[in-house]
Amino acid sequence: MTTNASLTARAGGDPLIPMSITALREGYGPAALRADAVAGLTVAIVALPLSMAIAIASGVGPERGLFTAIVGGFLVSLFGGSRFQIGGPAGAFIVLVNACVMQTGVEGLMLATFLSGIMLTVLGLLRLGSTIRFMPYPVTVGFTSGIGVIIFASQIKDMIGLRLSGAEPGPIVPKVEALWAARATLSPAAVGVALATVGVILAIQRFRPRWPSLLLGIALVTAASALLGLPVETIASKFGGLPRLLPAPHLPPLSAEAVSAALPWAASFTLLGAIESLLSAMVADGMSGTLHRSNMELVAQGIANMGAAIFGGFCVTGTIARTATNVRSGGRTPMAGMLHALFVLAFMLIAAPLAGYIPLAALAGLLGIVAWNMIERHEFAALTRVSKGDALVLWVTFLVVVFRDLAEGIVLGFALGGLVFIRRMSEMTGLREGEPVVRDADTQSADLVTYHLHGAVFFGSVARLGTVLDRIAQRPRAVLLDVSEVTFVDSTGARMILQLAQKLSSRGGALVIVGARPAVETALKAQGLTEPALRYAADAGAAGALLAP
After folding, report:
1. I need a labelling partner for 78 at 20 to 30 A (CA). Which of 25, 147, 466, 469 fits?
2. Which segments cross the bilayer (predicted)?
3. How far from the centroid of its chain's Cα atoms is residue 249's Cα?
4. Which of 490, 491, 487, 547 is nearest to 515 (CA)?
5. What are the chain's domains?
């Protein structure tokens, strides 16, 4: 466990050093190896069926999910900036990958994955990792829940064994229409297999939470289906036998036409991969009390995507469920993630023929559980109740993701979240009139008025404050403006105060700033708020002296 002091030190530097090297420097002995091996085996048992299910749902063969988990998972842990991050194929990418395959083919997907790896590496080297993490929470919840709905909808066909007359549409509305039109082809055997898979997995999670529920659920239902000779589609009947070795590495085609077609998909993979991997690393930080290196994590994700593409895999990212499993299973260092990849490779070498018997309906049931868990129902309800602004951002992100596009949902949600934040900040900024300042016994004090400005004076609050300040400048009098409670002034806010000083000066009045913090005073002076248009004073008494005749 890392102390708070070391966390602070590491947070400030965020060096581009893989966490695996840091772990080795700290000392790595047999006890740590045993703990990492147990955790790695546990995660591999979870990753094995999940990787194949995600690959099939993404429109590629199950073997590509295994290649991604093996190569990508190993490289993420070897080069990553997190002690516990587990990389591999993720459910969040199903929709994007499927659409990419439909438009560019599998080779186009490999190229887009490779280009995305380059982009992620550049983002990390430019140290933009901490910037990407500034994602409003309602956007994250709406985005994740929207993906959950899309994944669940994509599994209905295999869950109930429908046979469509053509290709399954990608957008959700045409998809539902096509599924409804094919309702007469429903297979009772497929429905039974899917329900049995869900029932077994949930029962194990309920009564034996430490057991590998996903693998046991798939294994038991597959055995029962084979013994009963159920008429359901399997991995072997649809995709043929699984390979028992990794393919020879090769680069995707790099023609100008292919790169041009793959670039938009690569950009989408990069955006989603950066957000998903850093979110997963942050979840691991919260569970373990450690702190990841966001920039190194992006570099590792980039290397992993390039490596996966070369070996026939597709998009790699940090996976929250498998990362959380690693932490709960007692993993200590990135070695657990590397061992998880080697265990998946061993499973592929040994058990590849058996995987062909797995019914597609069973994998669809497994992904149905994953999708249901991704829909953050409690967070949805809480955010909707707490704030109208958060509810708006949440629902807009969710609906755009479900009915339009993942990237559009993120961008629109982020922009809307920024507007909500600006409005809230502007509402926290205000101006109130204070007690008049008495300069001496022979002088009327009515011509020297005091106003207290508080909050952030920036472009979002200028519209509200500008009208009030214009009224203040109407009469030729001295104005003492107390800015001791102003936390921030941008160029637009400073320009507004400059215009107040100029209007007062043109009418024979004057403006005195009281209590300006160094940063605020610097911002004001940068806009030309200097003598003779403006005077500064430490307090009201000093202001009275400045204005004394």
Report:
1. 147
2. 37-58, 65-86, 92-125, 137-156, 180-204, 211-232, 298-321, 342-372, 392-422
3. 30
4. 487
5. 29-239+252-378 (no CATH), 429-546 (3.30.750.24)
